[in-house]
Amino acid sequence: MRVGDETMTVKEQTIFNSCGNVIKTSDKEIHIIGRIDEPLILILENVLSHEECDVLIDLAKNRLQRAKIGGKSHVESDIRTSSSMFFEENENECIKKVETRVSELMNIPVSHAEPLQILHYKPGEQYHPHFDYFTSGNVVNNRISTLIMYLSDVEEGGETYFPSLRLAVTPKKGSAVYFEYFYNDYRLNELTLHAGNPVVIGAKWVATQWMRRQSHRIT
Ligand SMILES: O=C(O)CCC(=O)C(=O)O
Ligand SMILES: [Fe+2]
């Protein structure tokens, strides 16, 4: 292909940095078991141990709140019907360890990390298709990448679904799906539209880490 040829495509830079199928963070070997290249979407195994999943669920259990929209309206949102909570940064040794591992895996300093979010879906609950980046107005320090870690298996339903790519990721305890939306070509970012399909049988627990373009933490 010639330069200037309209059909010439230049592969976009990715944030995620891996060569090979195994990623070594300072305390774990994580395996890539599935991928789409553009936009980059990775299915990762062994991100969290089963014990870590259980600890995160236990710590979150009593602090969950049904999804709300609007500060004062207290109207329950139909966009997301699950319950959620956020951990404090560095809240305890387990959170600290997970935050460090996730930041190494996502190749972004921990200071760019939002607080770790826990979501709990009961049968019938779901998260309708959405973008993780903010689309309204002039966002200064937008989100650039997401890691959704599954803290439980789900007997039926509950997949993370990318409708534009027709990709469904089945929750598996300790596994995760990674995607990024930092591309110059806006159409690639838009392909990261995703949903949490309704849980049919069982309970779904996830931990979501969103990364920002710039430092986000005050400390
Ligand atoms: O529960 C899922 O599979 C999706 C969660 C999600 O999209 C999010 O936390 O932003
Ligand atoms: Fe999302």
UniProtKB/TrEMBL annotation:
Pfam families: 2OG-FeII_Oxy_3. Its cofactor is L-ascorbate. InterPro entries: Oxoglu/Fe-dep_dioxygenase_dom, P4HA-like, Pro_4_hyd_alph, Pro_4_hyd_alph_FE2OG_OXY. Keywords: Dioxygenase, Iron, Metal-binding, Oxidoreductase, Vitamin C. Residues 112-213 form the Fe2OG dioxygenase domain. GO terms for molecular function: iron ion binding; L-ascorbic acid binding; procollagen-proline 4-dioxygenase activity. This is 2OG-Fe(II) oxygenase. It comes from Paenibacillus albus.
